[in-house]
């Protein structure tokens, strides 16, 4: 009986430890004020690094192509985290995306590499696509970039890839 209880407690402790380790690697749990060095040690290398005005840097952690989140961690010139933002958020797109202002490099610095780049006959340029979730629904963000590299429009839509897999 004691060995069973010990085995159960050991398994419970192991599961708790694994759960905490999973939290340690979650970019959205980084707190403003943390050091960039601690953040990098905790999360590992980012999927993208971009300079910010004023000497800071953006550490970007993307879960694409299989996932649905891109987290931007902005660090100031002194090496302290100033903001942590999960940017693939439908409520933010209208505020964040700067149509006719952003260039291709701005899109990369904000959203990282897209899930897909395609072309459509109704637009002269490329359509960059990211997957995200809105209230547990799989969605897509489409950003239209003209041949000069300028963002001309964007829209969202349902992620139909899951339907294709099921058929």
UniProtKB/TrEMBL annotation:
Keywords: Signal. Residues 1-21 form the signal peptide. The lineage of its organism: Bacteria, Pseudomonadati, Pseudomonadota, Betaproteobacteria, Burkholderiales. This is Lipoprotein transmembrane. It comes from Variovorax paradoxus.
């Amino acid at each position: 009986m004691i060995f069973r209880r010990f085995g159960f407690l050991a398994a419970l402790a192991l599961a708790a430890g694994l759960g905490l380790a999973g939290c340690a690697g979650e970019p959205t749990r980084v707190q403003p004020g943390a050091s960039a060095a601690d953040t990098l040690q905790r999360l590992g290398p980012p999927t993208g690094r971009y300079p910010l005005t004023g000497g800071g840097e953006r550490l970007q952690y993307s879960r694409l192509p299989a996932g649905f989140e891109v987290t931007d961690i902005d660090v100031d010139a002194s090496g302290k985290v100033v903001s942590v933002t999960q940017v693939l958020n439908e409520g933010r797109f209208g505020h964040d995306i700067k149509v006719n202002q952003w260039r291709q490099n701005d899109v990369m610095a904000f959203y990282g590499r897209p899930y897909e780049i395609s072309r459509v006959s109704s637009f002269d340029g490329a359509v960059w696509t990211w997957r995200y979730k809105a209230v547990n629904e799989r969605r897509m963000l489409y950003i239209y970039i003209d041949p000069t590299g300028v963002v001309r429009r964007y829209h969202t839509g349902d992620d139909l890839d899951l339907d294709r897999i099921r058929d």
